[in-house]
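Board notes (copied after class):
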Amino acid sequence: MVARVRELRPDLGLTVSATTREPREGEIDGTSYYFLTEEEFTRRLDADEFVEWANVHGHRYGTLVSEVSSKLAAGSSLVLEIDVQGAFQVKERFPEAVLVFIMPPSLPVLQERLSNRGTESADSLALRLANAEREMALADRYDDVVVNDDLDRAVDELLAVLDKHERN
């Protein structure tokens, strides 16, 4: 969804997150994620190099200050693809940030999507679904919610949300 939005709005800056998980097939370090060892992640965390970070699905993820700073310096509005823990950290650090929750149509649909992706073990799938259920319960704390039930409609709705907040 974010990739489609960025095709239509190339002016939006997208940060590359850091993670301690192993790369999936086709993922490229520095483009898909910054793939860090646990030790490197901890070193950067101790050096206060993250805007936000969280343990998600058994791995650590975070957004580097350098990613945010470089995009903001270029005058870009930013898109951060992060979980709810990170979103609330960003809102605390940047009160002007707009939080948009991308909601699956339902947990069964999310389960089907994750299963069809073929990248999750049974344990990982169960963990992701449990986390998603907890995260969905927090959607009312976001500025806007977009239900990703139909990709074209959801992309249009997300674009409208972005336009609304950029005008304010």
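Comment from the instructor: The beta strands are 13-14, 18-19, 34-35, 50-56, 59-64, 78-79, 100-103, 144-147. The domain at 2-167 is CATH 3.40.50.300 (Rossmann fold).
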